[in-house]
Amino acid sequence: MTPRIVAIGGTVSPGSATELALKSAIAAAEAEGAQVSLFDGAYLAALPHYRGPGHTLEHGAEMVEAVRAADGLLISAPGYHGTVSGLVKNALDYLEDLASDARPYLDGRAVGLIATAYGDQATVNTMQTLRTVVHALRGWPTPMGATIRVGPDMFSPTGDRLDDRSRLQLEMVGRQVVDGARSLTSLGDG
After folding, report:
1. pTM to 2 decimal places
2. Spatial separation of the C-alpha atoms in residues 182 and 180, rounded to whole Å
3. What is the pLDDT of residue 11?
4. Mind listing the pLDDT tens digit for each residue in 4-32?
């Protein structure tokens, strides 16, 4: 089985630490045999407020369809003022379009979580919020959630993670989402 994983996250700044952290977890998931579709900060920034002015059914449809077909997700959010950024939260609000599905929201899907921020407190608060949102959407957060404290020189010019602690966390989240997707899919088949 090739697990289908959807990765959602980033900021309005291309090459942000949040997006680079997500790409590190994606690489680990792909190394485990997953097929990953990425919806990065640029994609998220183009989404109007869910069901707000300017919103149509076409907005976010590609992401919603990818999640509908997914076995698991990776979500990476920066900590803004102690919680999930509005950009990422708005993207997660689009998953309301899955409410009436036979497998509603994130039901039966493993979800790997990554929180990035300049301070430890913000990473922990952001992680708690992400876990709360995933539980509300009936998803299964992986045991490991990566809390990445960012700062200068956190990534090389090519995007490689420079410190072992963060690199190991991101790799574990990537592996666990694939393992979880495989386990939950086999349970659903049985």
Report:
1. 0.95
2. 5
3. 94
4. 999 999 999 988 999 999 999 999 999 99
DSSP code string of the chain: ---EEEEEE--SSTT-HHHHHHHHHHHHHHHTT-EEEEE-HHHHHTSPPTTSTT--TTTTHHHHHHHHH-SEEEEEEEEETTEE-HHHHHHHHGGGGGTTSSS-TTTT-EEEEEEEESSHHHHHHHHHHHHHHHHHTT-EE-S--EEEE--TTSB-TT--B-SHHHHHHHHHHHHHHHHHHHHHHHHHH-
- pLDDT tens sequence across 140-163: 999 999 999 987 777 777 777 668
CA atoms within 13 A on the CB side of 190: 6
C-alpha 8 chain-centroid distance: 4
Q: How large is the angle between the packed helices 17-31 and 164-189, nearest 10 degrees?
A: 50
